[in-house]
């Protein structure tokens, strides 16, 4: 299969976000209609575990949506133990045979895509994204080389007090800070992502910001319980309880049992939402959408959120390197949950993101005005 620019190999293959944060923010119920961004598909599957009435997952990259298809089909087709083997969490020498056993459960396009990238199936799909390979091939080996003994101690720390002592006395310092500043410089991030559609507008000092956030996470969250920190620095998950939310056994069963009307959409998020009828969405899980669009595009997206939302809907999105707040002219329609947004920033296991959580409030006149403007 000859890949176009859009069909190049996936950027994300596993979760670099903490789905518990979305679930706390949105409080999904069985009556909710939810719009989310696909990304690695992990957050989408965590939302699916809540069994909403309707779930729509959107991504401009076909490969990311193919990955979501693959993950869902694998969950529905495989036993839990075999699923962990297939995904790469556990050792396995016959992943391709496992893939072939449920290949008919995914679309022909997805099947063709993964057949063209068999190496990723054989590797273990969770570990094969361009983003993830950076950590598996570069970050984890460097950590073993420079901080091997200390990282081993962190993985076995009995409590936070012990972990803090190891990190603050034996890791945090000039060498550590230098590695973070070089490894996560704007140039390094652009090379890692290698995706012209990922805007990576940055209005923070990347190195200093990540040093502060890493200090926070090592002082507040045990590494052995944190799926993203373990993947990032060890290149693997440190046990069955140190897995992304969707992959925990109880959530695996919830996903299999979900009766949700589920749609996967490949296309531009703004262009898609402009076609969505008014009052048709209750909850919005928009990931770090601010990294992918500029301020003008973000304003357009927020206007469409107001138009398409049910009154008193809920919005959750992350900010990473590009910190964008709700545009001031739209603030009357969004009641920001300042306390919850701050709490998620403190508690989020993925450590690098800040949060915007808001209730969506609108009047009939406002909706009619937006709808009229859209049709002009």
Explain what the structure shows:
It is a single chain. With 376 residues, the protein is an alpha/beta fold. The chain folds into two domains: 253 residues, Vaccinia Virus protein VP39 (Rossmann fold); 108 residues, no CATH class. The chain is built from 18 helices and seven strands. It has a seven-stranded mixed β-sheet. Helix 1 packs across helix 2 and helix 9 packs antiparallel against helix 12. The longest helix is centred in the middle third of the chain and has 26 residues. The radius of gyration is 21 Å and the shape is globular. The N terminus is likely disordered. This is NocK. Pfam families: DUF3419 (PF11899). It comes from Nostoc sp. CCAP 1453/38.
What features would you highlight for this structure?
376 residues; alpha/beta; Rossmann fold; seven-stranded mixed sheet; 7 strands; NocK; DUF3419
Multimerization state: single chain
- Residues in helices, as a percent range: 40-55%
Number of strands: 7
Low-confidence stretches: 1-6
Structural class: alpha/beta
Specify the CATH homologous superfamily of the largest domain.
Vaccinia Virus protein VP39
**What is the overall silhouette?**
globular
Overall average residue pLDDT:
91
Q: Give the C-level CATH assignment of the largest domain.
A: Alpha Beta
Provide the number of structural domains.
2
How do the strands line up in the largest sheet? 3-2-1-4-5-7-6
């Amino acid at each position: 299969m000859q890949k176009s620019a859009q069909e190049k190999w996936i950027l994300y293959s596993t979760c670099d976000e903490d789905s518990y944060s979305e679930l706390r923010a949105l409080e999904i119920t069985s009556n909710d209609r939810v719009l989310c961004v696909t990304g690695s598909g992990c957050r989408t599957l965590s939302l699916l575990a809540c069994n909403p009435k309707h779930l729509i997952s959107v991504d401009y990259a076909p490969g990311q949506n193919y990955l979501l298809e693959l993950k869902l089909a694998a969950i529905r087709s495989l036993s839990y133990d075999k699923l962990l083997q297939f995904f790469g969490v556990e050792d396995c020498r016959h992943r391709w045979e496992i893939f072939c056993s449920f290949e008919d459960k995914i679309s022909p396009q997805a099947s063709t895509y993964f057949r063209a990238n068999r190496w990723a199936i054989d590797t273990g799909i969770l570990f094969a994204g361009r983003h993830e390979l950076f950590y598996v091939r570069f970050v984890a080996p460097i950590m073993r080389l420079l901080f091997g003994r200390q990282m081993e101690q962190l993985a076995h720390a009995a409590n936070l007090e012990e972990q803090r002592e190891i990190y603050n006395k034996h890791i945090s310092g000039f060498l550590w800070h230098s590695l973070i500043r070089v490894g996560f410089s704007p140039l390094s991030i652009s090379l890692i992502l290698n995706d012209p559609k990922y805007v990576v507008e940055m209005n923070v000092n990347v190195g200093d910001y990540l040093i502060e956030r890493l200090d926070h996470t090592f002082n507040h969250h045990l590494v052995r319980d944190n799926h993203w920190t373990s993947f990032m620095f060890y290149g693997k998950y440190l046990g069955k309880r140190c897995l992304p939310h969707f992959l925990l056994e109880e959530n695996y069963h919830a996903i299999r049992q979900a009766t949700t009307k589920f749609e996967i959409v490949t296309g531009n998020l703004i262009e898609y939402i402009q076609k969505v009828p008014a009052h048709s969405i209750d909850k919005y899980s928009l990931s770090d959408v601010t990294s992918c669009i500029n301020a003008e595009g973000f304003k357009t997206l927020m206007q469409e959120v107001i138009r398409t939302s049910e009154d008193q809907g809920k919005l959750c999105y992350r900010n990473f390197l590009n910190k964008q707040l709700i545009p001031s002219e739209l603030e009357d329609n969004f009641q920001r949950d300042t306390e919850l947004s701050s709490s998620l920033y403190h508690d989020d296991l993925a450590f690098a993101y800040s949060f915007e959580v808001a209730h969506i409030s609108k009047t009939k006149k406002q909706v009619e005005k937006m709808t009229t403007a859209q049709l002009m």
